[in-house]
Amino acid sequence: MTFFSIKEASEKLGCPPSTIRYYEKEGLLPNLKRDPHGNRMFEKKDLDWMRLMTCLRHTGMQVTDMKRIVKLAFEGDETVPLRREIFENHKKELLKRQKELDMAFEAVDKKLLKYDEIEKGLIKPGQEFKMEDHEERI
């Protein structure tokens, strides 16, 4: 079995060792092995789990929800519906945020097109602002 040091795990995951220590401190890295000197020893499954935890944090999942997932996982397969519910709720929030970002990208793209028109001399500066460019969508 191959083990990785915290430095190697950090390099493989592209995150600082402090993030790994934080995840461990918060209880997000269950059953982490240590060598006789107390150094953390990471297996591939630990790296895969940390990748998931990092992904969830990047998407804005709260640490409390991540802890709940870990706790429920240890309680057994009967908790799968509860874990699924956490992920489904998170996905709904992500879809809402994605919609908001899509609208923001559209607004930025429209503004960039106006600047292109100004640079090409098709419209004069100051004429690029129209209310319909900034109307809210429901």
Brief summary of the model shown:
By secondary structure, the protein is mainly α.
CATH class of the domain at 1-63: Mainly Alpha
How far from one another are the termini? 55 Å
Q: Residue share in helices?
A: 55-70%
Numbering strands along the chain, what is their spatial order in the largest sheet? 1-2
Question: How would a textbook summarize the main sheet?
Answer: 2 strands, antiparallel
Low-confidence stretches: none
Average pLDDT for all residues:
90
The percent range for strand residues is: under 5%
Tell me the CATH architecture of the domain at 1-63: Orthogonal Bundle
Mind telling me the C-alpha Rg? 23 Å
Please tally the helical runs, counting DSSP H or I stretches of 4 or more residues: 5
Spell the H/E element sequence.
HHEEHHH
- The third-level CATH topology of the domain at 1-63 is Multidrug-efflux Transporter Regulator, Chain: A, Domain 2
Write a structural description.
This protein has 138 residues and is an all-alpha fold. It has a domain at 1-63: Multidrug-efflux Transporter Regulator, Chain: A, Domain 2 (Orthogonal Bundle), CATH 1.10.1660.10. It has helices spanning 6-13, 17-25, 44-58, 63-75, 80-119, and strands spanning 33-34, 40-41. Strands 1-2 form a two-stranded antiparallel ribbon. The radius of gyration is 23 Å and the shape is elongated.
